[in-house]
Structures are given as C-alpha cells and as structure tokens.
Write a structure and sequence with these properties.
Strand order of the largest sheet: 1-2-3-4
Shape: elongated
Largest sheet: 4 strands, mixed
Number of strands: 6
Helix content: 10-25%
Structural class: alpha/beta
Radius of gyration: 18 Å
Number of helices: 3
C-alpha cells in the first residue's frame, strides 16, 4: 500500500473513531510524495498493529519527478516502533538503499559541477 502523510492522517481519523478494519494481510507499506511526519506514521503503525498487522515492511521514499527515487530506506514496522529508531526529529535511518544514478550535463555534453546549470540525466 502506498500512502502520503495526508492519506495516513485521514485513515487514522477513521480508525481511531471506531471504523472496522483488518490489517492481518498487510505486508508492505510505502510512504512518500510529501513530507512524512514520524508521529503520524508511528500512530498509524500502532493502529495497524492493533488491527492484526504483523511483520510488515515499511519503505520511505524521497524522489523528484525528473529523477525518480533519490533516497529510499526500508525496515520492518516492529523495528521502527522500537525506541532506539525514533528520535525527536524522526526515524533514525542508518540503512539507506541506493537510488537511480543521476547527473547534470551541460549543453556542451560535459558533466556540470556544483552550481552549474544543465540537464538532469538519469
């Protein structure tokens, strides 16, 4: 299931107000497309766990339309709910996956350096 922080906030409101749900078959969650608030996601995980979710994997993605994924990190939800993963600023990801390689190429075909303009190449 792929979600934004706004989607999760809406689902939490329904779930917390007694909406019936069964999360037993949920195996994978992905979050992205807008800033992800750790407190919101943590509450969502807690509600899903209450609904029967076990051993689901969560993936967090930061990307740009022009380049695709720039940063992804995944962990089992149960691990994310452990105190050592959660900090005041968010989740402490020490395991990052490689994303698509990208670079900026100038009009003359050479690679641009920091601060130079050009076209994004993926």
């Amino acid at each position: 299931m792929g979600l934004t922080n706004s989607n999760v906030s809406n689902l939490i409101a329904h779930m917390a107000n007694g909406a019936a749900y069964n999360a037993k078959s949920l195996e994978r969650l992905a979050f992205g497309a807008e800033p992800i608030k750790p407190a919101t996601i943590t509450r969502f995980f807690q509600l899903l766990r209450h609904g029967g979710m076990r051993n689901a994997k969560a993936t967090f993605v930061y990307s740009m339309t022009a380049t695709g994924p720039l940063f992804t990190s995944s962990a089992v939800v149960e691990e994310l709910l452990e105190a050592e993963w959660v900090t005041k600023e968010g989740f402490d990801f020490s395991r990052c996956s490689n994303s698509w390689p990208d670079r900026v190429r100038k009009d003359d075909g050479t690679l641009a350096t920091k601060g130079e303009q050009g076209s994004i190449e993926v």
